[in-house]
Design goal:
It is a single chain. The protein is of the alpha+beta class. Helices cover 52% and strands 15% of the residues. It is elongated and about 65 Å long.
Length: 270
């Protein structure tokens, strides 16, 4: 390896959260027409965005954040300043217990830290998917330094599973849920009917009925009561059916996984 490149990589390994080191390395790669330059530059931009989002989300309304982008709303960045280390200039990272890509349970230790007052165990608040670890063992970390980032969501386990057409379909539905709910009721219902038929072909009618029953207990009776309710508009009924369909797909994937025989290509929305 080129000695200059080795020095860049060593600097990044020493301080993974240093945006400047990544940008300088990206410039060095770009001068040599190295295709890795774009990735290095975007990784620095990602760190900058993660810090900015983490700071801004503390000042904004949770409902607005949830509507704007649920992914960013779930992204948590833990820093030194939240650890109750008043009076300490820095903490020492004694142990790094997880790696990026790991799934962790609520209460699972992530990092072991120590300060002058004593030891600190940083734990996951909820089931999560670790997206970044910005420190290394025995590193001295000063105030405001990011420690670890993760997606705090009960669905992290499903997102880590290998992608498949039904998972892609579910992701597309969830990411466009707000747009879909604004469709005309008859168009949305027709789309959902087509999806429901495909779902029965993929998983089997019995499995779909069982999953839908878990989402909507007393399925048939609930539908009859809903249809007879004159106070419910067609738009509201269509939106409720969209939510039921999405929840049903989630149950099916959690229960049965992606059918191995199902060919790719069914993940796109019209």
């Amino acid at each position: 390896m080129n000695p200059d490149e080795a020095a860049f990589l060593n600097a990044i390994r020493t301080n993974p959260a240093d945006e400047t080191a990544r940008l300088v390395y990206a410039d060095w790669l770009a001068e040599r027409d190295d295709p890795r330059a774009d990735f290095a530059r975007l990784s620095a931009e990602f760190l900058r965005c993660v810090r900015g989002l983490a700071a801004l989300r503390q000042t904004l309304e949770p409902d607005w954040l949830a509507d704007l982008d649920p992914l960013f709303n779930r992204l948590v960045v833990r820093t030194v300043t939240e650890l109750g280390t008043a009076g300490a200039e820095y903490v020492i990272v004694d142990e790094v217990l997880v790696e990026p890509g790991a799934t962790v349970a609520a209460g699972q230790p992530l990092l072991l830290l120590s300060t002058n007052p004593g030891a600190i165990e940083l734990v996951a608040e909820r089931p999560s998917l670790v997206t970044g670890v910005f420190v290394r063992r025995h590193q001295a970390v000063r105030l405001h330094h990011p420690l670890i980032a993760y997606l705090m969501d009960a669905d992290a386990l499903a997102r880590r599973a290998p992608p498949g057409p039904m998972r892609a379909h579910l992701h597309a539905l969830e990411s466009r849920r707000r747009t879909l709910r604004r469709k005309p009721a008859d168009l949305l219902e027709a789309t959902l009917d087509r999806y429901q038929t495909a779902l029965c072909m993929i998983f089997g009618e019995g499995a779909v009925r069982a999953a839908r029953g878990d989402v909507l207990p007393a399925d048939d009776e609930a539908d009859d009561e809903f249809d007879d309710d004159e106070d419910v508009s067609p738009e509201a009924r269509a939106r409720a059916n969209l939510d039921t369909y999405i929840a049903t797909v989630r149950v099916l994937l959690a229960r049965h996984g992606q059918p191995a025989w199902f060919a790719p290509g069914a993940g796109e929305l019209p």
